[in-house]
Amino acid sequence: MKIIPLGAVENVTGSCFLIETEEKTFLIDCGLFQGEDTNNNQNKFPFNSKEVDFLILTHAHLDHSGRIPYLVKMGFKGKIFCTKATFELTKIMLLDSAKVMYEDYLSAKRKALRRGEEVREPLYYEEDVIDTYDSFFILDYDQEARISPNIVFKLRDAGHIIGSSYVELTVREKGESKRIIFSGDLGNRNKPIVRDPACPSKDINYLFIESTYGDREHKNFQSSYNEFKSAILETFQRGGNVIIPSFALERTQELLYLFREMYEKRELPPCRVFLDSPLAIKATNLFAQYYDYFDEETKRIYESGKNPFYFPYLILTSSVEDSKNINNIKERAIIIAGSGMCNGGRILHHLKHNLWSEKNSIIFTGFQAKGTLGRKIVDGEKYVYIYGEHIQVRAKIYTINGFSSHADKNILLNFISHLTNLKKIFLIHGEREVMLQFKKFIENSKTVDVSIPKKTEDIIL
Ligand SMILES: [Zn+2]
């Protein structure tokens, strides 16, 4: 069999793996490129979409799901296997993605007209998203999906976001079974809402494992929670606002969960917490339907009749007008908005209005990819460019890393330690320097061949 990574390899985003066996050709994930390689989204797939038999989708994040409408538009007719929560959340993520692409297209078109240039149409429209719905096929965690007598797989709980999975795949060729894990994004431990990643099956021969934080240990959750609280209290003492760039899915719900806890413990002073993201508001409303996917503590909160994501200071601002009105507030506003890496969305307006003042704070709680505005701010740039203006960065910048939805080095090594019969590990989804460090850590803990594959490289198993 042959595996060709088409994304989520060193320094490249957009998870997508093409797998060719004697019987079938299929994909694991079909994600959008983000950050520095966004322009690659318009490139044609290096395969014929009509010849792909099926797709396994690990989770709803756009860097794993975002090119599915394009795949279907190009002639893919197979099933898309995923969990129920992944299906529901992917629908709203893709609809939002189509909307953003269309808005970007209109604005590029206006500029291009003035210059007499051509502009490319969006990768897909809302109708293309809706056209994908009939292709989805829902699987429970640990349910065996038998594609043929020789190709079987299971989705296991990855503990990364609601509905997220890693894939345990068995392919039988020439009388030999090959057992492979594709990690998707593996979650952190002891996080609110989601369960910890499921323990993998032992007998695995090949592992494709994400390496986002393969070089470091996360701070523990409680100390990050304390840091987060202090950042907010300090900002209020200075008479400023708190801006939190946040991913609409999972991170936002975790923040709401934490704010509710702070409120109940009387640790949150009177303030206004704005959830300024129509997408995050939709995702939060959907979360209530995923009771079965929650960890025990979140289930208990639901059973006691409370909504784990609501507290009285919370204000949901769906309309553009309500969002703009937030700009008039000079202190004690906490603004949660997307995009999580500040490369678009309403967060840009809030940064423009708040970055320049030393009274305000920006709290980063998620990964910032190279090339994004978020990464520039985290890396300490003194001026940034937003909506055609140079804005000075005088606000206090906090980076809280213990809220991560990705496993750190220890969790990844622990995952690997469960596997027996391993022939080779492939490091995916990470920056090259991090992968080189992680490779060393693995080699110190286990005798196994570790490889860092390149994009479009043929991996023959
Ligand atoms: Zn993810």
Folded structure, characterized:
This protein folds into 2 domains: 2-216 and 405-460, Ribonuclease Z/Hydroxyacylglutathione hydrolase-like (Metallo-beta-lactamase, Chain A), CATH 3.60.15.10; 221-399, Rossmann fold (3-Layer(aba) Sandwich), CATH 3.40.50. It has 13 helices and 22 strands. It has helices spanning 62-65, 68-73, 84-115, 126-130, 221-237, 251-264, 278-287, 296-303, 320-325, 347-354, 373-378, 409-417, 432-445; strands at 2-7, 16-20, 25-28, 54-56, 79-82, 136-138, 145-148, 151-157, 165-173, 176-182, 206-210, 242-245, 272-275, 314-316, 333-337, 361-364, 383-386, 389-392, 396-399, 424-428, 449-451, 459-460. A 7-stranded mixed beta sheet has the order 6-5-4-3-2-1-22. A 7-stranded mixed beta sheet has the order 7-8-9-10-11-20-21, with helices on one face. A hairpin with a 2-residue loop joins strand 17 and strand 18. The longest helix is centred in the N-terminal third of the chain and has 32 residues, at 84-115. It is globular. The N and C termini lie close together (6 Å).
Question: For the record, what is the CATH homologous superfamily label of the largest domain?
Answer: Ribonuclease Z/Hydroxyacylglutathione hydrolase-like
Main sheet makeup? 7 strands, mixed
Number of domains: 2
How many helices? The count is 13
The CATH topology of the largest domain comes to Metallo-beta-lactamase, Chain A
Give helix % range: 25-40%
**Which strands sit side by side, in order, in the main sheet?**
6-5-4-3-2-1-22
Low-confidence stretches: none
The proportion of residues in beta strands is: 15-25%
Number of strands: 22
Shape designation:
globular
CATH architecture of the largest domain: 4-Layer Sandwich
How big is the Rg?
22 Å
Ligand roster: zinc ion
